[in-house]
Amino acid sequence: MTIISFIFFTTLVAALTLFFTRKDDHKTITGYFLAGRTLSWPLIAGSLLLTNLSTEQMVGLNGAAFIDGMSVMAWEVIAVIALVVMALFFLPRFLKYGVTTVPEYLEIRYDHQTQVITNIIFLSAYAFILLPIILYTGATGLMGILDLPGIIGIESRAILLWLVVWTVGIIGSLYALFGGLRTVAVSDTINGIGLLVGGLMIAWFSLSTLGNGSLSNGIEVLVNTSPERLNSIGSRDSSVPFSTLFSGVLLLHFFYWTSNQQIIQRTFGAKSLAEGQKGVVATGLLKLLGPIFLVLPGIVAYSMFPDLGNENADQAYGMLVNRVLPAGLAGFFAAVMMGAILSSYNSALNSTCTLFSLGLYKKIINKEASNEQVVKSGKIFGWVLAIFSMSTAPLLMRHESIFAYLQKMNGLYFIPIFSIVICGMLFKKVPPIAAKIALLTGITIIGLGYFVKPFTGLVNAIHEFHFLGLVFLLLVMILLGFSKLIPMVDSQNDSAESAVDMTPWPMVKRACVILLITVLIIYGIFADFSVL
After folding, report:
1. What confidence tens digit (pLDDT) does each residue in 283-334 have?
2. Cis peptide before 454 (omega within 30 of 0)
3. Domains, the chain, with CATH or none
């Protein structure tokens, strides 16, 4: 029954996506990479949510909650602050210049070399960090939910992991490389509905199981047996100490939701500024529900599987789902998880193709390329990258917490790129040479702090997220210093004409204030500052 319901829902999503996108333009640059700039706010919100909420979140964040409890909700709730900044500040500026990629904006603001360097950084990060992690966490989650070792009869976890990784990778590549951005957005939205229903369903069933069939008893058991795990304030020993929310954690959110090509590409495809702002704000509202299905199940799993051990925390979510759901619903949720995996994977792959085709192929390799040649180059590069990511994903088995590993590696390039984006927008006299120096300096310093002794000891002493905050301040000082020494004379063209209607959504400021107040309320309800 589990496999039947899994196959049925997965096939249904594919059929609906094919039906709704059958007449789409997949041959031109705008049509393939930006959905023809026709995306409405529900598609933007659905795609933003699903691109973010893949298995590195479902499996990884619940695994982190298994270890640290409620404090890891910072990776969901604090995101709302960054989304507010995206809606009010970044999105109007990106849409004003009609850009397709973040590096393209940096070329307008700085110069061609800055665009090339940023493109290479993005491509390297997606190839070596993001895509393999999506496939690994996706395969790990599916193996636990569907009990694949028992169904397929393969006892070796390593062999089964390779099999599932390649299966998911091939299917995801077909979505991304043949359909384009609108196909990704439509499938994301359909799967997003299933993910919200399924995620809330897991929280309900897990608490009910903990309470021997009663939801209220389950909540009572959780509160009475592990009250310290329901604290939103992270201690110094947790993966997210409270003080880091004001330094590295906040900066990582800012980059992720305002400058990360994989995420914000669907906002570039908005048919107007108002639709884009609605989509971003709606995503912020949905993120406030995140702790219910991305953190709470991990805390429940700790109560159910106390002997699992922190080294196996990433297996907790799959085990929980397999334990609490009936067979038919387990198959449905596995299909939803499959959709989440495909969403993040095909979004990252689509963004990678966009970066390569428009940033390197069209700008350097073949400047006279036609629309068809540019799109074709992206598809070929995408298949090469897909094969590479499928080959490297199973090698991540040795990491204790894949979510912690992801956040650490993200900082390597998040902070340098964000520093030049934000300073480029705020300070018009920052010259191109400063941007290039900041990029290379930031990556070098963070790399030394992460991987080279004795620098690693210093980073551990102050915490890696505070370290990222200090690096960001250093890079800003470098950028502002160059703006005084050799100020840029001709900055970006403020008279550029946008490709879409730039009339803001009238309710955007009011909606953003409500979101920020809600963040404070959520933290206040679960706060216990005695751990500091």
Report:
1. 999 999 989 989 999 999 998 988 888 878 877 887 888 788 876 677 777 7
2. yes
3. 2-399 (1.20.1730.10)
CB of 299 closer than 8 Å to CB of 65? yes
pLDDT for residue 30: 62
* pLDDT value at residue 55: 64
Which of 299, 5, 12 lies closest to 145 in space, CA to CA?
5
Residue 165: pLDDT band with limits 50, 70, 90: confident
Backbone angles phi, psi at 272, to 5 degrees: -165, 165
Asked if 194 and 287 count as a contact pair (C-beta separation under 8 A), the reply is no
Q: Please calculate the CA angle 24-332-2 and round it to the nearest 5 degrees.
A: 130
Token pair of 494, please?
């403020």
User: What number of CA atoms fall less than 13 Å from residue 83's CA on the CB side?
Assistant: 34
486 alpha-carbon distance from chain centroid: 37
Name the amino acid, one letter, at 177: L
Residue 495: pLDDT above 70? no
* C-alpha span between 303 and 141 (Å, rounded): 19
At 39, phi and psi to the nearest 5?
A: -75, 130
- DSSP 3-state of 247: coil
d(CA 258, CA 414): 11
Q: How confident is the model at residue 444 (pLDDT cuts 50, 70, 90)?
A: very high
Q: Where does residue 500 fall: left (phi above 0), alpha (psi -120 to 50 degrees), or beta otherwise?
A: beta
* DSSP state for residue 89 in the 8-state scheme: I
Going by C-alpha positions, the residue among 25, 383, 317, 315 that lies closest to residue 180 is 25
Mean pLDDT, range 407-431, rounded to an integer: 91
User: pLDDT digits over 20-65, tens only?
Assistant: 665 655 556 565 556 567 888 998 998 888 777 766 677 778 888 9
Phi first, then psi: give them for residue 324, nearest 5 degrees: -100, -20
Q: Where are the beta strands (DSSP E) in 200-321?
A: none
How far lies 66's CA from each of 110, 172, 313, in Å?
44, 29, 6
